[in-house]
Specification:
Length: 160
């Protein structure tokens, strides 16, 4: 099972339109239906806010939402502390509150996260400027994180 971040789902929806890539979306529908592809509830809400048609497609195919629990909230707060973020002082170039919930959800369910947030080859001097992939790679977080293209390549599927 893999958890999708909103960035990956929106990237897929915008970059690979259903009408032009029907095979991809048929395969994705199977992945959703078999619960191999799930989404944290906050990520699904972000998708709904930005691409309502994508949310409708996900819902019609039975997307499983991973709800935010107290354990997830506590872990998100722990990660927030690791990044040195105080109060609501999120850096505009780093993770936000929903991002921390998404990462903590992947940790709680022990699933790999698919995120298309920018990879940072050089960690920023201020940890609060870290994006999802870099936060996932922190030793104290340890969540495997790939992007959408890596997900497709790794699947071995061929879409004709």
């Amino acid at each position: 099972m893999l958890a999708f971040d909103a960035s990956s789902m929106i990237h897929a929806w915008d970059s690979y339109p259903v009408k032009q890539f029907p095979g991809l979306w048929e395969w994705m529908a199977v992945q959703v239906g078999e619960k191999n592809l799930v989404m944290p509830s906050v990520a699904l809400k972000e998708v709904a806010d930005k691409t309502p048609d994508c949310r409708k497609w996900l819902k019609s195919n039975g997307i499983k939402e991973l709800e935010i629990t107290n354990v997830i909230i506590q872990d998100a707060l722990r990660i927030k502390g690791l990044l040195g973020i105080a109060g609501g002082g999120y850096h505009p170039n780093g993770v936000g509150e929903n991002d921390l919930f998404i990462i903590a959800t992947a940790r709680a369910h022990r699933v790999e996260l698919v995120s298309n947030e920018a990879r940072q080859n050089n960690p920023p001097q201020k940890p609060a400027k870290s994006k999802i992939p870099l936060v996932c790679a922190m030793q104290e977080v340890d969540v495997s994180c790939i992007d959408f293209i890596d997900y497709i390549k790794r699947s071995g599927e061929v879409f004709g």
